[in-house]
Amino acid sequence: MKHWIERIADELNEMDVEKHVIASGTSISGSIHIGNSCDVFIANAIGKALRELGNDAETIWIADDHDPLRKVPYPLPESYDQYLGMPYSMIPCPEGCCKNFVEHFEKPLFNVLDDYGIEIIPKSGFEMYKDGSYLESIRISLEKHNEIKAIFDQYRREPLADHWLPYNPICDECGRVNTTEAYDYDGDIIKYRCECGHEGEMDIKSGNGKLTWRVEWAARWKIFGTTCEPFGKDHAAAGGSYDVSSVISEEIFDYPAPYPVPYEWITLDGEAMSKSHGVFFTPEQWLEIGPAESLNYYLFRSKPMKSKDFSPKMPWLDFMDTFDRVEKVFYGEEEAPSEKEGRKFKSIYKMAQINPDSPLPFRPPFRFLVNAYQIVGEKDLEKIFAIVKKNSQLTKSFADKEFEDLSELEVSQFSERVDNVIAWLEKYAPKFVKFQVQYDSIPNLPLPDDQIAFLKDLADLMEEKEFSSAEELHDSMYEILESHGLKPQKAFQAIYKMILGQKQGPRAASFLLSLDKDFVVKRLRQEA
């Protein structure tokens, strides 16, 4: 079963080209999140798949850092509205920690590229205009501006003005690029007027301007020899950027449009991601709560145009359950639900892998560790491991191991997963998931006589008998609570009140078996 990334690579492999260039790009209008960085992840995966087929392939990433600021991104102050309309490349760093606005928002992505195994060659739109990379394309566009205007008018309700030119100078007076109108040119000199009232001239060799977007996109396809490019679904709409740029590419620049890979937006808890409203989740934030492979898995587990909603809150546990299961199936630690599902799981995980030679990672179930960590109450890996082992949460390759048998790499992976759990509990877990064992004192929560009697009988049982599994203890607990005429909810509430000081907690049988036996017996008897 081939993954959709592999099928794209197969089609590209049929093209008669010496080298494949997979392009990706991001507008540096604020924080780069898991929605608008999809280009990078998809392009990187396609490049890797092409190289596996023996192709010469490179992946590039173009920062659209010469575009105008249209909205002030979160969490910048309102005072940044003074820069609206100015190119990102000419806006100062909001915190004074970087050389400018662009570097400030690029750095968090660049810092985690190695973690995700992403190999890209970064490019800057600003630098390309400054170093003359676009110069030939600009001259061609000016010479053929009437032909370009005719292409645009095919997709517009109202035709462009007769004097329209496909270029926007940066105003010498106000510094804005989205308020200027180029109306004439003489060689490399552009004449323009700005909404601020200024009229002036500029030399295209200065780099103080830019091609209009759809012309720019087509121009850079030829500049880089792009053969494939992923992009958001807005560009893929009928009559949208890709359609128009494709015509411009072929008719103006004499270059075939690259293989398109459109993708659907990712929503965050059902809400569209927005840099200006602070609704986003970054690749850097993802690494705080999950391994890099899990983001690759999230992006590649379904076709690119399938809608995706992400939540780092309670649904995260379900997602990690699924990821853990797929990883275990891939490494042969667990059987897939069916042969077909097994092939599917392995195909997706292959795409998600950072290093194809990686051995089986030591990652006990995330959901179980949420409870195990809180039971221990601190990051004591040996104690947490003991609880994991006691509750049969180790897969077959680790089932017979003790903590001291783990390799240095496995301990590191275990530590990373516990860190992920801690970060999730602190930042995203709902209150009902959190608990703290009251080791030092009995919570002052009075219980009725039937609950006290239930706890006493349960203490006697746990003192007298060794349980081999949580299921066995669970069945025995039900026998006791039924003998006291207690509903399960009331019986379990009594346990949680005495040990946690609250009415709810993790699954009772597994929880009790994870605690020190003497402590449990005494606490159920309200002795300590």
Automatic annotation (TrEMBL):
Belongs to the class-I aminoacyl-tRNA synthetase family. This is Lysine--tRNA ligase. Keywords: Aminoacyl-tRNA synthetase, ATP-binding, Cytoplasm, Ligase, Nucleotide-binding, Protein biosynthesis. Gene3D superfamilies: 1.10.10.350, 1.10.10.770, HUPs (3.40.50.620). It catalyses: tRNA(Lys) + L-lysine + ATP = L-lysyl-tRNA(Lys) + AMP + diphosphate. A motif ('HIGH' region) lies at residues 28-36. The keyword Protein biosynthesis applies. The keyword tRNA processing does not apply. A motif ('KMSKS' region) lies at residues 272-276. The lineage of its organism: Archaea, Methanobacteriati, Methanobacteriota, Methanomada group, Methanobacteria. It holds the Pfam family Anticodon_2. It is found in: Cytoplasm. Residues 432-526 form the Aminoacyl-tRNA synthetase class I anticodon-binding domain. One of its GO terms (biological process) is lysyl-tRNA aminoacylation. ATP binds at residue 275. Its EC number is 6.1.1.6. GO terms for molecular function: ATP binding; lysine-tRNA ligase activity; tRNA binding. One of its GO terms (cellular component) is cytoplasm. It comes from Methanobrevibacter ruminantium (strain ATCC 35063 / DSM 1093 / JCM 13430 / OCM 146 / M1) (Methanobacterium ruminantium).
